[in-house]
Amino acid sequence: MSEYQYYELVAVDRQLSKDEMGYLRGISSRAQISSTRFCNTYNYGDLKADPRQLLSRFFDAYVYVSNFGCKIFATKVPRNLLDESLLLRYLVNDTCNYTRVAGHWIIEFAYENEDCYDDEWDEGDGWMGSLLNIRSELMHGDNRSLYLAWLSQLDWLEPDALSPAIPPGLDDLSASQSALCDFLKLDAQRVVASAQIKPDYANAQPEALIDQYVMQLPETAARNQLRALLLDETGTVRREQFAALVGQAQEVPRSSSVTVGHLLASARELRQKAHEKAREQKLRQQQEKAESVAANEGAYWGRVEELFEKRGSSTVYSELSAKLGDLQLMAKMQNRQTAYDQRLAELKQRYAKKTSHWQWLRRR
Fold first, then answer.
1. pLDDT class for 117, splitting at 50, 70, 90?
2. CB-CB contact of 5 with 66 (8 Å)
3. Which of 121, 133, 325, 355 has the fewest CB atoms below 10 angstroms from its CB?
4. pLDDT > 70: percent of the chain
5. What is the H or E stretch that residue 99 is in?
6. What is the per-residue burial (b if ≥16 Cβ within 10 Å, else e) of 72-94?
């Protein structure tokens, strides 16, 4: 299989200048480059730059996807909008981590396949649009993506290690947070197990915070604040003010009382129950199908004979295989295997010359 590497970087808070776009063009002659985006796919060779440095200098988010077991989503967040103590609690492994660059944190969510090859890999196009809103959520005090990153790291933690504070809303993830679960290939039962535990804190209510803040703001300060908001093209003033309000009202504990071992055990139990439920549902569907076939058994066998009479084609072969499969399911579910075998033997004798039909059925 040929190599596949996908790089995409986007700018949110500002547009790139012509000089900056020219610099990026010097890195790649084939990349798609605009004032807000750099994107390229490599089937041989590689990007002639460090994508993390490009993220630090020019962009606000970065996606990397390869077919040899590595996926990365990284986002750049102003340091004054996110306390480092939160990052230290939730990002405890080299896979999902953070670094400090000037006035920003670069937060990296990554998936790595230990075998260095992923037979279920998907292409990179589309991930950025699905994941980008995580940046805004983090800047508005929503820590659920950080907790999902922590859940993806459980296998590297000691069973008696305590969970960081469990955020509210794990039973109602945003679209971008659900996409992050898919991106990290996070076991869904770990999320369900965490959601069943009472959150360690409550989210601040934005409208109530803003109403209280506005009512207490002196007239001169209110005028200055409004002027700053109207002149702020990037939204930085709004984000910083909102982060300050949330930081004052939302106190996040250092940890939960729940251990890693408890979460893993709960997830295993939930997974087992889910498998049992799926098996029961499949059995019910098979029983219903068998009853439906039994009620029309004559028509099924009649159609099988008609298909043997027809000239061979993929359409004929597919329907023939499906009809015999349904009849075999009925025989199994209703303990009528002997009768089915006898009927099939009669067909083999009667249509012995239909070798292509039988060859197809044997392959299926």
1. low
2. yes
3. 355
4. 93
5. strand 97-101
6. bbbbbbbeebbeeebbebbbbee
3-state secondary structure of 85: helix
Q: pTM, whole model, 2 decimals?
A: 0.79
Give kind and range of the element (H or E) at residue 41. strand 37-42
269: left (phi over 0), alpha (psi -120 to 50) or beta: alpha
Phi and psi of 80, rounded to 5°?
A: -75, -5
Mean residue pLDDT of the chain comes to 89
Q: Where are the beta strands (DSSP E) in 113-227?
A: none
Each residue's pLDDT tens digit, 318-357: 999 999 999 999 999 999 999 999 999 999 999 999 999 9
Which residue is listed with tokens 């959520």? 137
Contact 320/304 with Cβ under 8 angstroms?
A: yes
Using the CB atoms, write b or e for 181-199: b if 16+ within 10 Å: bebbebbebbbbbbeebeb
DSSP sequence for 226-247 = HHHHHH-SSSHHHHHHHHHHHH
Question: How far is it, in rounded angstroms, from Cα 194 to Cα 167?
Answer: 9
Distance (Å, whole) CA 50 – CA 120: 26
